[in-house]
Fold this protein.
Amino acid sequence: MKVLVTGGAGFIGSHLVDRLLAEGHLVEVVDDLSTGSMANLSQARAEYHGQIRISELDIRSDEFVQHVIKVEPEVVFHMAAQADVRVSIQDPLLDAEINILGTINVLEAARLASTRKIVFAASGGTLYGEPTLDKLPIKETEPQRPLSQYGVSKKVALDYMATYRQLYGLDYSALALANVYGPRQDPHGEAGVVAIFAGNLVSNIPCKIFGTGEQTRDFIFVDDVVDAFSKAASSGSGEVINIGTGIETSVNTLYSTVVRATKSKLEPNLFPARPGELDRSSLSPKKAKKVLNWTSWTSLEEGIAQVVQSLT
Ligand SMILES: NC(=O)c1ccc[n+]([C@@H]2O[C@H](COP(=O)([O-])OP(=O)(O)OC[C@H]3O[C@@H](n4cnc5c(N)ncnc54)[C@H](O)[C@@H]3O)[C@@H](O)[C@H]2O)c1
């Protein structure tokens, strides 16, 4: 099958490209390289040249639309985004231009190219806002109350997907991702804490922990995430589906796991809590099991060992 991956030179996108190539698909990558890098695709290019084509284009441009019309992909994996919550707060217009207008351009292009389906990288970590504690792990039926401009722009995209499905029969699945981590992650991204801790401790630099360190997140390994994207190409029609482990891990537990993996002796430096951060978070994987037949299988220890190995 011919597929197109927007943001395919990014952290998650490049792992997805590796997976799709290994499955034998013809893969068209579109990326403007604003945060992504060709280096993330160097192995893919070396092993699968002839099966992968990379175009440096902005998803907001007319050229992008013309490109998609020419390529006629059966499935578009839409990963390109302004993916930093802090940037969205500092520059909400830029965030909306890329995440809302850019997504509309992707939908228009897919409609004109008679694409069968869009699989969209939604954000489960921001979509639901601060959860009621008795509602953890969060199910897809919970109210969507994002607390940042980034969360809003990713939420709005879901309405556009549903509208295009209704009006034009362009199918979609939106995967609401927990905090994704793994090799190639840029420490400045949405869930950079694993990359920061591992990068610092490998280089013998002390880490910062904000607040008590007892705040929790749902850390999901990137290979497990791309498995969900692969499955969603042919299942989960018209659905928003959480992709997480359902397990809450505190920042302190994460830190000690990275310390064990790096054999570091460094103590963290403690700083006051940062305003606006969620206290606790985890996403229920039940719907993903039912709808996509997907479950995560990489433990935090295994995943972090792979991150550390990639840095040494
Ligand atoms: N990392 C996470 O934990 C996480 C969690 C939830 C959702 N997501 C979503 O997953 C997707 C991938 O995130 P990531 O962590 O790999 O981030 P990333 O920044 O590594 O990847 C985004 C990619 O999109 C490209 N891009 C940005 N703007 C573009 C534009 N206008 N035109 C073309 N390409 C553009 C970037 O160059 C980059 O390669 C994003 O949509 C993000 O919102 C990520």
Q: What stands out?
A: The pocket of nicotinamide-adenine-dinucleotide is lined by residues 6-7, 9-13, 31-36, 58-60, 79-81, 83, 98, 102, 121, 123, 125, 177, 179-180, 186, 189-191 (CB under 6 Å). The mean pLDDT is 96. The domain at 2-182+220-244+284-297 is CATH 3.40.50.720 (Rossmann fold). The chain has one domain: 2-182+220-244+284-297.
